[in-house]
């Protein structure tokens, strides 16, 4: 039995379908009143469970909830929401789970490769130190917010997600109309590293972490072959049989999004290796970008 926050999002929806069809029970943590018989439990990111006695025995909890990083231009208020929705929600959930009469054995928390900063030029794995920038600081505090669960004896893993590929949402859904219209091109210099991961492998990585008792602490959820933005652009154009001759200058993105947001999102660079998943023997469904795009864009 697995509890999931953020179950209605891209990853949460895919995980829910995967786990339930595999014979597991999913309990969705919802912010409004729980519907009877719908497999839901009410929770509040600020106060925890309004009715802890209504929480069924759980084997594990997957925590995905948090405000979108690139949904809106970064204002001071938006940046505070990005940080607080992750840090406060994780701390509240960790405390609430630790206080249950029968706590789950594991808490799997979404995190992000933003932990490594936005200007990486060399490969990094889970042993690398925190990088610079707003998102790196958020990720560090976000992961530390799970300490109450860790202190209570739960196995806590932080799955540092890369750029999730799916036509149903995220970056790829945003790019598809532009590239299908033949208006795609490299972003900025095109040399920045893009550490991507197919949605199927995101689900597979969470499934692996659910059952491998050795997986605790940080785990990079990226494919083994990160690529430059220029190579990503070329591969997406070839998959769609469209030209990619319309570059997006870095200066235009900085004017549109603001310097800090542009640098840490659209222009960010990270070359991330999934060392712990590979050491665990995880069988990636799509190890190369061409294979992933062929699967998601038939």
| SS class | alpha/beta
Task: Assess the beta-strand content as a share of residues.
Answer: 15-25%
Roughly how many Å apart are the termini?
A: 34 Å
> What value does the Rg take, in angstroms?
19 Å
Q: Tell me, what's the shape?
A: globular
Mean pLDDT: 97
Instruction: State the major sheet.
Output: 7 strands, parallel
- List the secondary-structure elements in sequence, H or E: EHEEEHEEHHEEHEEHEEHHHEHH
- What fraction, in percent, of the residue positions are helical? 25-40%
Please report the number of helical segments.
Answer: 11
Taking pLDDT < 50 over at least 5 consecutive residues as the criterion, the unreliable ranges are none
DSSP summary, beta strand count: 13
Strand order of the largest sheet: 3-2-1-4-5-7-11
Description:
This protein has eleven helices and 13 strands. By secondary structure, the protein is of the alpha/beta class. Strand 4, helix 2 and strand 5 form a beta-alpha-beta unit. It starts with a strand and ends with a helix. The mean pLDDT is 97.
Main attributes of the structure:
298 residues, alpha/beta, 7-stranded parallel sheet, two-stranded parallel sheet, 13 strands, 38% helix
Please summarize what this structure is:
With 298 residues, the chain is α/β, with parallel strands linked by helices.
Fold topology:
Blueprint: E1 2-5, H1 10-21, E2 26-30, E3 40-42, E4 60-63, H2 76-98, E5 106-112, E6 119-124, H3 134-144, H4 147-151, E7 155-161, E8 163-165, H5 170-180, E9 193-194, E10 196-198, H6 199-211, E11 217-221, E12 227-228, H7 229-240, H8 250-257, H9 259-264, E13 269-272, H10 275-279, H11 289-296
Parallel strand pairs: 1-2, 1-4, 2-3, 4-5, 5-7, 6-13, 7-11, 8-10
Antiparallel strand pairs: 9-12
Helix pairs in contact: 1-6, 2-3, 7-11
């Amino acid at each position: 039995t697995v509890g999931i926050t953020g179950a209605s999002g891209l990853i949460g929806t895919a995980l829910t379908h995967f786990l339930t069809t595999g014979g597991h029970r999913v309990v969705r943590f919802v912010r409004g009143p729980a519907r009877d018989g719908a497999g839901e439990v009410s929770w509040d990111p600020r106060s925890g469970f309004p009715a802890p006695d209504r929480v069924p025995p759980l084997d594990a909890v997957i925590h995905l909830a948090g405000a979108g990083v690139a949904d809106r231009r970064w204002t001071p208020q938006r940046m505070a929401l990005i940080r607080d929705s992750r840090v406060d929600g994780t701390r509240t959930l960790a405390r609430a789970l630790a206080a249950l009469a029968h706590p789950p054995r594991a808490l799997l928390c979404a995190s992000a490769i933003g932990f490594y900063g936005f200007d990486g030029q060399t490969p990094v794995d889970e042993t690398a130190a925190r990088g610079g920038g707003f998102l790196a600081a958020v990720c560090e505090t976000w992961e530390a917010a799970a300490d109450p669960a860790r202190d209570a004896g739960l196995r806590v893993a932080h799955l540092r997600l890369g750029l999730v590929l799916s036509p149903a949402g995220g970056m790829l859904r945003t790019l598809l109309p532009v590239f299908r219209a033949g208006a795609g091109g490299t972003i900025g210099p095109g040399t920045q590293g893009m550490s991507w991961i197919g949605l199927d492998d995101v689900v597979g990585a969470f499934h692996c972490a659910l059952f491998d008792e050795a997986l605790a602490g940080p785990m990079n959820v990226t494919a083994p072959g990160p690529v430059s933005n220029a190579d990503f652009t070329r591969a997406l154009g070839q998959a769609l049989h469209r030209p990619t001759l319309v570059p997006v200058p870095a200066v235009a993105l900085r004017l549109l999004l603001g310097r800090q947001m542009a640098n840490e999102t659209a222009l960010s660079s990270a070359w991330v290796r999934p060392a712990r998943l590979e050491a665990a023997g995880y069988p990636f469904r799509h190890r190369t970008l061409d294979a992933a795009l062929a699967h998601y864009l038939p």
